[in-house]
Amino acid sequence: MLLPVHDDTHVTPTEATSTAVALTLHQLMEGVVLAAAYVAGGVVGLIAALFLTAHTVVETAAVGTAYVVAGQYKRGGIAVVFMQTVYVIAAVIAFRSALAVPPAAEHITTAIVGSVLLIVGIHSCRCVIDDSISYS
Ligand SMILES: [Zn+2]
């Protein structure tokens, strides 16, 4: 994901907040994908869940760093906690919704989940690479 923060030494509070908002919405989707990974189960689900967790840590650190550079320590702490809360709540809601799927629709759901995991996996690789370039 291309972040609005390009230079570590000049981050305004507004830029830090826009980064936090963008990544919170992004992690809302990733929480849903995490639930999908659990539902998919097996090695694919486990790898996807582990990868998403590592990826989320990188994104959360990026937001924390943006606030620290902007000198907004308290807001940074709040943003980090808020992002993680949104991620977990999205995962729980999606997981409960997935459990409500009738057994007959399970194969179709598994196929859709597999496709989503593939797309998000590719997207996540790009996120981590972009984050590493932006914050290293
Ligand atoms: Zn992400």
**Number of structural domains:** 1
What is the typical, i.e. mean, pLDDT?
80
Structural class by secondary-structure content: mainly alpha
Task: Indicate the overall shape.
Answer: elongated
Q: Largest sheet at a glance?
A: none
Which small-molecule ligands are present, each listed once? Answer: zinc ion
Share in helix: over 70%
Could you list some keywords that capture this structure?
single chain, 136 residues, mainly alpha, 4 helices, 83% helix, elongated, binds zinc ion
Architecture overview:
The protein has one domain. It is elongated and about 55 Å long. The model has no long low-confidence stretch (mean pLDDT 80). The chain is built from four helices and no strands. With 136 residues, the protein is mainly alpha-helical. The structure holds zinc ion. The site of zinc ion has 6 residues, from helix 1, helix 2 and helix 4. Zinc ion is lined by residues 26, 30, 55, 59, 124, 127.
Concise summary:
The chain has 136 residues and is an all-alpha fold. The protein is 83% helix and 0% strand.
